[in-house]
Design a protein that fits this description.
The protein is α+β, with helices and mostly antiparallel strands. The protein has a domain at 14-114: Alpha-Beta Plaits (2-Layer Sandwich). The protein is built from four helices and seven strands. Bound molecules: protoporphyrin IX containing FE (HEM).
């Protein structure tokens, strides 16, 4: 079994993570939510290909009514820029209008700005996923063996 560690590309001092979720309250909102899900997938592929700052986008599904995406951005500024333009600015408008009129779904965004020094990872027997899909990968040996060492916290009180 391979044991791989991944670190962020050298140019990234602060990783910007965003978790976006949609929760369907009434079944009639399912087609809207499904359309948004497809639009997110398409726009993520475009944002990665165009170098907008998106590094990786991974959909998740909690249950049939609750799904979303976890995205890794190279900076908060690139995420903010992307969010103020179409297609997102259109989704934003449409979502607020639908909520006002029908209130049949919920949406949430959680943003995390993580300093480079606060990121560590390990992948056992995995295909490229998360940071290992866009970062630098290496073997988990020496000072890369434990999460404490990878975080540079050896010798600190635990
Ligand atoms: C890839 C998926 C998405 C990303 C990365 C994303 C990102 C963002 C960001 C960064 C903001 C904050 C903008 C600011 O305050 O300057 C925002 C706001 C917002 N987004 Fe998204 N978004 C995504 C998907 C969606 C979808 C699918 C919808 C609608 C169905 C949506 C609706 C909204 C709304 C309504 C706001 C304003 C919230 C408020 O402050 O009241 N977003 N989004």
């Amino acid at each position: 079994m391979d044991r791989v560690v991944a670190t962020l590309p050298g140019s990234i001092e602060e990783l910007c993570l965003i978790r976006l979720g949609l929760i369907v309250h009434k079944l009639r909102a399912l087609p809207f939510a499904a359309r948004m899900g497809r639009a997110i997938g398409t726009s993520a592929a475009e944002a990665i290909a165009s170098g907008a700052g998106l590094l990786r986008s991974e959909p998740f599904r909690v249950d049939g009514r609750h799904f979303g995406v976890l995205q890794y951005w190279a900076s908060y500024e690139s995420l903010e820029r992307w969010s103020h333009r179409p297609p997102h600015s259109d989704w934003w408008r449409e979502a607020l209008e639908r909520m006002r009129k029908r209130g049949d779904f919920g949406i949430y965004h959680e943003t995390f700005l993580v300093p480079r020094s606060g990121v560590e990872s390990i992948y056992l027997g995995c295909p490229p996923v998360g940071i290992s899909a866009f970062g630098r990968t290496g073997e988990s040996v020496g000072t890369m063996t434990t999460s404490r060492d990878r975080l540079g916290r050896r010798g600190e009180r635990g």
